[in-house]
Write a structure and sequence with these properties.
The chain has five helices and no strands. The protein is an all-alpha fold.
Amino acid sequence: MVIGKEKFALWITPEAKREVETHYKQDNCKSQSEYIEKAVRFYSGYLDTQHADAYLPRVLSDVLEGKLGAFGKRMGHLLFKLSVDQDIMANLVAYQSNVDLDQLQKLRVRCVKNVKETNGEIDFEDAFRFQKEITE
């Protein structure tokens, strides 16, 4: 038995019952009772204008948390995919390159400086021109 909750009879139209059965999983509720309780709290908050300042931040927080969670998951996936492609490219370039470790370290220092100075907005053409200046 669940502690702190009360069981009572609930009369509901078949249409409303179908809505609960259809939507409770979409709202990540574990049970139809949880969905109904959330709906009651939502509607009570809507009606209770004296507590609107406490109600709205909670609703907004729930919505933002869901949206940001999905966004974070998507960004993590994209960053992983980008890292894999970067690793492939780095290995291909290293395989074809005749650069020694000292030159590589100097290039890393220069690249870190460039990224800091440009706030990460690196242009391939600038790097191309720099490399051509070195080799000429």
